[in-house]
Structure formats: structure tokens, C-alpha cells
Design brief:
heterodimer, A: mainly alpha, 10 helices, B: alpha+beta, 4-stranded antiparallel sheet, about 40% helix, globular
Chain lengths: ~180, ~475
Amino acid sequence: MTDLVKEIRKKDKEAIKMLYNHYGKKLYGYAVSKWNLNEDDAWELIYKTLYKILEVIDKYTFETESKFNGFIYQVFINNLRNDYAGKKSRYIDIIKLEEKHDRELFEKEEHTEERVSDNPYMKCLKKSLEQLEDWKRVLLLMKAQNFSYEEISKYVDKPEEQLKVYHLRAKQVLTDKVNKCMNNS
Amino acid sequence: MANKGPINESELDILLQDLHLEENANVPNENMANFVLELDYPVTPDPKKENELLTRLQNKPGGFGSGKFYSYLLVIGVVMIALFYFYSQKGKTTGTHSNITQEATTSSGTELQNNNIINDPGNNNLDNSTNPLLKGVDTFGHPKKVVQVKTDTAIVKIKVQAVQKPVENENSIPFLTEKDRLKYKHIKGQIIVNLIKFNKGLYTKIPAYKTDYAGKAIILDAFTIRNVGITNLEYKTFLADLLAQNRHEDYLKCRVRNENWTKQCYYNLADNYFQDAAYNDFPVVNVSYDAAKLFCKWLEEETRLYMLQNNLKLRPLQVRLPYDEEWVFAAREGYAKIAFEKGYNTIYDEAVGLVNKSFTNRVELVKKRVERVDTLYGLYSTNRYGWSEKEMTDFFEVGLNCYKSGPLDTIYVERMKVLGKIGHVSEMIPQKNSNRLWLSGLSWKNKEEYQKLENEFKTNSSSPFVGFRVVIINPNDPEYKKPFW
């Protein structure tokens, strides 16, 4: 068990402040700059995430700080997906996408989660991504979140220039593959 | 299905964002988490909003700040630990060495959870916690053991996590969770695609060649050899696929004999080497010759199916273990950078004894070239046979530290190339048209060590110092035709 987790488990004023300073600030920055959430939504998301952490932290042990980080990130993503997908500007785009291509499907499936996983476009996307090397897959996923090439370069350990060149080409290829897959389905 | 129109690139980004959310909501992604939490963002939170947030958290109904909840759990925790200590002293447990980490339940219904496996942090995506069949079960024969202690007044169930000190049952079949099934299906796809594409990081093509073997001139047909041994992750994928196909007998035949580590007093490696994802790209060891052959057969069959399903008009590839003459040739000529060091790259041959003259000359040249560009090369050329566990884990740690970031459960070629060589072991190399099996390559440095290793391997049908790599015969490549001389 890490010292940080031990401290946070106390759940007193200092512990809550420590949790926010270690994680809340960063996640707020991530939510605003990478997921384009507006300030109010981002604060609400951080509140829900930290609240959940404090609520369940006693049920888990974390051998390393890295595991605890993974846990916090997963809670954050769960909240982002469940509560905020509908409020983000991208959601409007999703509706447009669904309406444009499959209004019937959209009307039938009301729950965001179900809609996403059943989305035939998503199925085609997964199939197409499976054929890519892992770093290429990661590049496409991270670039879609507004990570810069410089940032992605640190994660996948590839030169920035190579990422730029590959991404420009890969996005077009992937779009074509998804469209081709949709035509064949 | 309704008519679907094409999407454009910005719509693709939306789909990719959704995919990221979906994937990361289901499985903890430590690497991405660490990465996200280390980055600096050009956003300054409003101090007023910060204070509001902290006040809200401190004043929540029930009060996190009150410490009541914590105290309550602490008291129950102390009681449960005392109970467990009492029962274990009475010798009524099953004798497992495992630490209590998972759950303790009394018949009165009091329940404590002290889980070190992150299952459902958000609230909703957990297979194991919701499905009673999966509860307490871990894939690959490492069930979280449930110890039931009956007393006059109560039944105490203590669930202990097997990852610490597994008491493995040779005949136990693990339950493959849906999450794992999907994960390994994805990895299987990666393995096959890399194979079909003959990814140069993992495979080296060797043209047909006239060469000497055991003092005789022979002609080798063209073949493609793996640059590193089959890894733990690839072998896990194989085992998962056997389970997914309900091939339970094959699974039992192929299971990894982690107990071999224990027999040689490597207790931590027994617990971690195959199970811990950090070692995913190290060579799989403790598998039998039959298991290695079955792996080749599986890979060949799955590749053939993939080609059929994807309408790839290619002739099926053949996958098998390398023959001795192929392995010797590849090592001698410096193909695939098969590791070498003084004796260890020496081939022990019944006819000629230790062969280590012209053989090493060629590879020394290769070594010098590689060293110029590869600072880790020194780690590749080390004989670990006979090392203590600490020496070995410290050594592995150097390699692991080079790849702290990046997802673990995936085929990551660059990492496989490095960790596969750092964790190098001897390999099962059959002799063509013979039943003889050689243990070639690293981990032994002289004849005596080789014979000791061979005896251990024969006794246990597997060894912590023996793995395998594969050879592929590709009938689609024009170069791969038999030479005419």
C-alpha cells in the first residue's frame, strides 16, 4: 500500500486536499484541454470522480501508485462516458452522424452505452484497427483526443515527424476502410 | 439494415474518442493513466471553484471528513484479522501459503473487502463482481482459493488470492471471462497479422543455402525464423484460445509448469514470471516439447483460418519448431541475432562435441556492429543458468525499466525484441528425421551445465531455462522455392 493511498484513506480535510492536488487538478486540465468540456461540466466531472474514489477506496488495496493511478483514471473515464457524453459538443456530432446514416437505429436505442457498442461504424472501426500495429492504433486514438504529436511521441516512443507523416495518411486509410466495411455489411 | 453513408475524417475522430472511452472504462490502463497524470495542461483552475469543490467533498452527507466510515471498517478489519489468526493457529485452514487479500465473510453476514485487483472502479463494468460464476476466479488456473473453516459456532470463508502463492491443481481448468476472451482474441489477431506480414522486427527471412552441418555439406531450404522466443503473452493467448474452443485436454497438456521455478527455489518468479503482465514480453518457459509443438500447430491453423476469413488468396503457411540444422545456420550466420556469448552460443553435438571456433568468429562481428547502436546489447549476452533469484530479477528489472510506459497486454514489437533477448533461454530444437531434441542457445555455458539442464528438462518435461521459437515455411514467396542444385 502506498503512503499516498494511506493518507487519502483518512478522508479528512488534508486527505481530500491531497487527493485534489495530486489528481483533481490534472484531470481537470485533461477534461478541459483534451475532451473539450466546458468549465462547469469539468468541475462536476472531477467532483464525481473524487467523490467516487473517496467512497470506494477502502474496498481496494493498491500495491503501487501506478495501480492507484490506473484506478482513478478508470473512474474518471467511467464518469466521463456515462454522465458527460451527452453534454459534450461531440455528442451533437454523434447524433448528426447517427441521423445522417441510420436514424432508425438511433431511435431504437436510447442508451448511449448501448448505442456506442452496437454502432455498426464502431464495429467496422474496431475491425479495421485490429489490423494495425499497436503504436499506430494508439496514435490514432490519442490524436482523436487532441493530444499533440509531441505528447504522443513520448507515449509510443516514436519520432514526432514519423507520427505526423503516418497519421495524415493513416486517417484517410482508416476512414476508407470503415466506409468499405460499412458498404460490405 | 438501413442504408449507411460514408463517414468523413472528423466523424472518424468521434468514433475513435468513443472507442477510447469504451476501452478504458472497462479495463484499468495504468500506462495511459500515468501518462495523462504526468502531462502538463495549459489550463489554470479557478481558485474559487477549487475551494467550492473541496468544500463540497468535505461536507458531503455522511461526511468523508468525519472518519466514521474509516473507523468502522478498521474495527471490523481488526476483528477479522484476529479471527483469521485464531483459526490459522488452530491449524484448520487448508495449508495454503497465500496472503489474505481478497475477502473475508462470516456466517453472520459481516463482510469486508480488501481487494487488490481493481474490478469495477467506476460502478458498472465488472464481469467478475456481477457474475457469480466468475467471482473469485482468475483465468489460467489461478483461482482465488476459498478456504472454508468450520467451527462450532460459525463458518468462516476466507478467499485468498492465488497470485501470491498459487497452489496449482494440475487438472483445474480456469474459467475464461468474457473480458479476457475478447482481450486475447484481439491479441491473437495481432499475432497473426504480424506473422502474415512477416514483421521484420519479429521475423527474419533466410534464403535457401548450401552449408555444413555436423561435418557434412547439406542444402537448407529457405525458411523464416522468429527473432525472439515465443513470449508469455503469446502463450497466454494460445491458452486462452484453447479455453475459448473448449479444448480442455489440450489446455492441461499445455499448461505452464510454474512449479519448476519453485523446485529451484525461485519463489517470486514462480508467482510472477508467467502471471504478471510486466513479464508479458519475456520468453515463455516451463512448457513441454509437446506443448510447444501444439502451439505451432495452433498458430498454423489459426493463421490459415484468418486467411480464409479475410479472403487472402495465399497458400497456407507452415509453422513448426526450428530444426537443429536451421537453428545452427541462423545463429552461425548471424541471422535473427540469436544471442551468443563464449560457450553459450556453442552447439553441443554428440559427434563433434562443443563447436565453438569459426562459429563464434562470425557472430563476434555481428556483436560488434550491434553494440555500436544498441546499448542494451550487453544484457543479451548473459548466461543466467545457476543465478540466484535476486540476481535474475535485478537483471530483468534493467530491461523492464526501459519500457515502463506503453500498454502491457498487446503485441509491442520493439519491446518484444528487447525483453525477449534480455530474458533469453535455451530453446527446444528438434533434429530433423530424428527423435533427438536439443536444448540450444543460452542459459548454459559448458558441457556440464548443458547436461545438467538437459537432465532437469527430462525429469520435469520442461524447465525455467527452456523456451522455444518458431520457424515458418512460406510457400507464397518466390524466393522460397527449393534450390535446383
